[in-house]
C-alpha cells in the first residue's frame, strides 16, 4: 500500500464503531507568502479528515500517538460544514475597511475536510510529526478517537438544533464588540 | 409646425382605436404563424400516396365483385330467414325481430355504388387507430313501398339486403383474390343501421390484394334510395313506430325517424359537401382541422361520442358559408383561409345557442337559400335543421353532449384569441379526452340488474336503446338535483364494441357501466344548502319535496324568507356532490343505486392529511379556517410591531411562508411545533434611514441590535415569547440573526429584518467579486429570493389561492405526493407552488380544475410532458378575467403582454445557449414576479429534475391505463427505494400529533389537542431532518440524500434516508488536496477512489441511535 503521495504521508485510521479504515493525509505545514522574517512553522497540515474533527479529537489522538506533544490550536476548514466549494468573505467584498480578524488564518482558504494543527513549540511539532511518519511508514492502523469526545445520534442532532439558538447576552456583547471595531476602522480610514 | 405638434400629441394619446389596431396586428401575426403550423400539420396527416393507390385498387376490385352478385327476389320472411346457413350468416334484423310480414324480401343490384364520407370528400387523414372508408350501396327504389318507413319495415328489407350481400361477398372476395374479414357493424353505434365492415387479411399469396398495412377498413353501407319516403311524415315530432299503448297519443320517435332519413342521404350529403369544397378553396383543410379538433376532445358522430363529428362539422361550415346569422348574414366567406373558416366555425359554436334556438339551412345545391339562425324556437334539443331534407343533423346529440361541445368551442375560441401564447398545440395536437382531467368528478355507475326491466315499450320507441334512455334519465335527475353546483354534466356508457359476427343478429347486450363526468361550479359546488322555492309557492314546494323526499325541510333564512331547502353535511374526504348524487339516484333511479356508484378519486383524496382540530372530519376540503386563524395571529403581531415606539420604527411586517399563503402540506394547528412548516417566515422593514453601516457584517449586527430591542419590548410587555436564532439561508453571510416569536394563539414566526442598504451591499459584492463572480451572483439570487421574491410570491399565491378555491388542497396533495416520493426535500416550496399553479392559470387543452383530483392529475400530466430542455414555463399569474371584457383588460391589466412574454422567453434562450443540455438550470419558470425564471430553480440538480419528470410520467401512465383505484393510488404514494444506492432506515418517531395530523385510525373523541408549547421546542423537532441537513453538509458533494420531510405523515413515524452517489464522485482520481471526497488509495496504482465504507461508517457513527439499518444496493 502507498505511504506517500505528492509530499503527503498517508496514515490509515481505524474509525470507531465498525473499525472501517479511513485514510488521513498529512505533511508539515509551510506558510508560503509571508515576506517578513519567516517564522519557522510549528504546524501540520491534514487532509481527508474524518467528520466532526475538533481540537479535542486531535488532543486525544496526539495523546495516544505522540505523548508529550502539545497542541496550541486547530484551524479547521470553514467548508467542513458548508455546502459551498470555496469560502468567500462577504465583508471584504462589501467594504474596504480592514475588519478581518488578525493573526492566524481562520480556515477560509482551506479546502473541505482539511485542517491545520498548530503545536505549542517546535519540539512538540517534531515529536508529533516523527511519530505520525513512523506510523505511516509502518502502515500501522491507529484508532481515531472521535467516539471519546463527540456525542452522536439524538444527542448530537438535538445539540445541532440548539446551536442555532443565540444567547442574547453573548449576542449583545458580540454586536457591541463588532460595532466598536467597525467604528474604529471607519475612523482610521478617514 | 402646428401639424407636427398635433400629430405628436395624437400619438402620445393611446386611443381605443390604436389598441384595436395593435390587437389586430398581433392577431394577424399570430394567425400567420398559426397558418404555417396548419400547413405543416396538414402535410403530416396526409395519407401516404402509396396507401391511397393501394386502397383505390382494392376499391375497384370490390366494386367489380359487387357487380357479380346475383339477384334474388320475392322471398317470404321464413324463406328469407332459412335462405342463409345460420351458422354463417344471420339477418341483422333490428329489435323487435319481425314475426310475420306481408311483404317480400329481395336483392337486386344496387342503384348506385358511391364512395362517401371523408374518403369521398378527400378529407381523410392518416390516424394511428386506423380509419374507415365509407361506401354507400343504394338499394333499388322498386324494393320499397311508400309506407315502409313505418314500423321498421324498410329496415327489415335493408337487413336482408345486407345479409345477402355479406353471404355473397364471402365466396366472391375469396375467388377474386381480395381476402376479407367481414363482420356486421353498427354505423355510429346506431342500432338501426348495421353495415358490413370489411377488413383486409394479410396472406402469403402474392396474388392476393391486401391493404392491411394502410390500417383502413371499409364500411359497406346499404343506403335507402333518396326521397323514397315523404319526408313530412318522418319529421322529428312524428311517431313512426306504432305500438299498443294505453296512452291516447304515441310519443314522437325522433331517433328512429332521423336514422331512416339519414340512411337515404349518404350520397346526397356528399354531393352537398363536395359542391362547397369546389367553391371554397380552404374548405377541405378546414374540415381536417375540425376533424382533428373534435378527435382530440373525444367527440365524434357516434351516439356515445356525443353525435358531433366530421360530418356535422363540415355540414355546419357549409351552412355558415351560406349565412347563419340572425338575419341570414354570412358567417363565413368563400375566400376565407382554413384558419379563418375553422375559427369562424368555432366562434359560432361558442356564441350561438343551438339548443334554445336553432340554425336552419338548405342542402339543396344551387338554390342559394340562405341559412338563418332562429333564436327562440326552443325545441329543447340541439338543432341544425336541413329544410330541404327535413333532417336535424344533430339528431344523435343530447343536451349534455351539446353542452360539452359548446364548452370546448368556448375554451378553444379563447385560445384562438390569445395573442401572447402560441396555442396551436393545445388546440389541435394535444389530447383532451382523459376523463379524470376533463371532468372535476368522475363516477362510475354499475347498472343494477332489475333496472333494465324498467325500460318500457314507450321509452323503447322514443330512445331505441337502453343507453340513450338511461343517459337521458340520469341527466334529468342530476341536472335537477345539482343545479348550479355543476356547469356541465356528461354521461357515457362503457364502450361496447359496435362490431359483431355475421352469425349474430345484434351486438352484445346493453352496457352495464355508465360514466358520469361533472364539471363543477367552484362557487356553488360545496354550498351547504340546496335552496328551493319559497314556502308560499305551493306547487313548486310540492315538486321540491317530492324530488328531495325526507331531506326537504322548511327554513327561515337570514333575509327573512322562509324557503324549502335541503341541508347537507360536509366531510373532509368526500366531496359534498357525491353525497347529493347518492341521495338523488337512490331516490329516483334505483333504491340501491348508491351501492352501485363508485368514486375512484376517494382513495386519492384520503392522502390529504386531516388537521388535528375539532370537527376537522366534518369540514369541506375547501375550508381554510386553520389558515385564517394563523393569518389573524400574524396580523395582530404585525399590528403590534408597527405600533412599537422604537429608535427606528417598524414600517411593515410582510408574510413569506407556505402556511401564510395556504399552501403548507399540513394545515397550521396551534402549538404543533413538529410540523416542518411550523415556523413562518416574515420580513420586517424599518422606516427609511441613511445611517445603516456600509459593510455587510456591521449591517447585520446593527439589524440584530434592533431586533434585540424589539425582543425586549415583546418579552416585557406582551404575551409573546421570543428567542433569537442564527440563519443559514444566505451563503457566506453568517451574521444574520432572526427574531423568533411564539404567539399566545400557538403559532411561530421567524422575523428577518430588511433595510434599504442590504441589496446595495449584495450588489456591490457581485461587482467586487473577481474570479468568483458567478458564486456571488448566486448569493445575490438567494438574497433576492429570501427578502423580496418570497414576499411577492406569497402575495401573488395568496390572491390566486382565494380566486382558485381548489388550488390550496391541490397543491397540498401535490406536496404530499412529492414527499412520499422522497422528492419534496429537493425543491423549494415556491417552485412547487408555481408548478402546481400551471393548470389553474393555463389549463389548455383542459380547463381550470375545480376538484383536487383534476388539479392533481393535471399537474402530474404537465410535469410528465414538460420538455424543460426546450420549453420555458411562462406563467401569467393573474386572475382569469371575464372573457367578455377583452378591450377593457387590454388597457388596465397585469396580464402578461407580448413584450414581457418575449423578454422572459429571451431570458430562457440565453440560459439555454450557455447550458444547452440543462446541466446547471433545468426548470425555467418565468412570470412577471420573476422574469429571470430561475429564482426558485437555481439549486436543482439534473438527476432530481429528471427523476421528477419520469416519476410523473410513470404516474400518469399508470392512471391512464388502469384508473385511480386504491391499489394504484397506494403505488403512486410509495417510493421506489430500490432505485437508490443505499437506504438508511431510521428510528421511528411518533410526530403525528405534535405535527397537528389527525391519526387515521383514531377515535374522533379521544384525540387530545395541544394547548401549550413544550418547554423545550427542540425536543419536538424532527431529528431525521437535522440528520439529513448534517449529512448534506458533510457528504453532499458526493451523495444526493433524500428523505421524507414529513416524518409525522409516515406510517408509525418510520422514515428513511436514501442516497445516490453522484457519478463523478465514483470515478478514480489522482490525489489533490481539494478533492472534497473521502478517498482511499487503490493498491498497486497511483490512483485513489471514494472510500464508501468509511463514509458509511461515519454516517452510522453520526446517526448513532437514530440509524436502525443501512441497506446497500446489490
Largest sheet of chain B: 6 strands, mixed
* Tally of DSSP β-strands of chain A: 8
Continuous helix count of chain A: 6
Strand content of chain A: 15-25%
Q: Can you tell me the CATH class of the largest domain in chain B?
A: Alpha Beta
CATH A-level architecture of the largest domain in chain B: 2-Layer Sandwich
Number of helices of chain B: 34
Rg calc of chain B? 35 Å
Shape of chain A: globular
Distance N to C terminus of chain B: 87 Å
Order of helices and strands of chain A: EEEEHEHEHEHHEH
Shape of chain B: elongated
Supply the CATH superfamily name of the largest domain in chain B.
Beta Polymerase, domain 2
Oligomer: heterodimer
Strand content of chain B: 5-15%
Largest sheet of chain A: 7 strands, mixed
**Termini separation of chain A:** 60 Å
3D architecture notes:
The complex is a heterodimer of chains A (about 190) and B (about 1100). Chain A is of the alpha+beta class. Chain A has two domains: about 5-150, no CATH class; about 150-190. Chain A has helices at about 55-65, 90-95, 120-135, 145-150, 155-165, 170-190; strands at about 5, 10-15, 20-30, 45, 70-75, 115-120, 140-145, 165. In chain A, strands 1, 2, 3, 4, 5, 6 and 7 form a seven-stranded mixed beta sheet that branches. Chain A is globular. The model of chain A has no long low-confidence stretch (mean pLDDT about 90). Chain B is of the alpha+beta class and about 1100 residues long. Chain B has six domains: about 1-45; about 45-245 and about 255-265, Beta Polymerase, domain 2, CATH 3.30.460; about 270-435, Poly(a)-polymerase, middle domain (Orthogonal Bundle), CATH 1.10.1410.10; about 625-805, 2-Layer Sandwich (Beta Polymerase, domain 2); about 805-975, Poly(a)-polymerase, middle domain; about 975-1110, 2-Layer Sandwich (Alpha-Beta Plaits). Helices cover about 40% and strands about 15% of the residues of chain B. Chain B is built from 34 helices and 32 strands. In chain B, the strands form nine sheets. Chain B has a six-stranded mixed beta sheet with strand order 3-4-7-6-5-14. Chain B starts with a helix and ends with a strand. Classes of the chains: A alpha+beta (about 190), B alpha+beta (about 1100). The interface between A and B is large, with 65 and 69 residues.
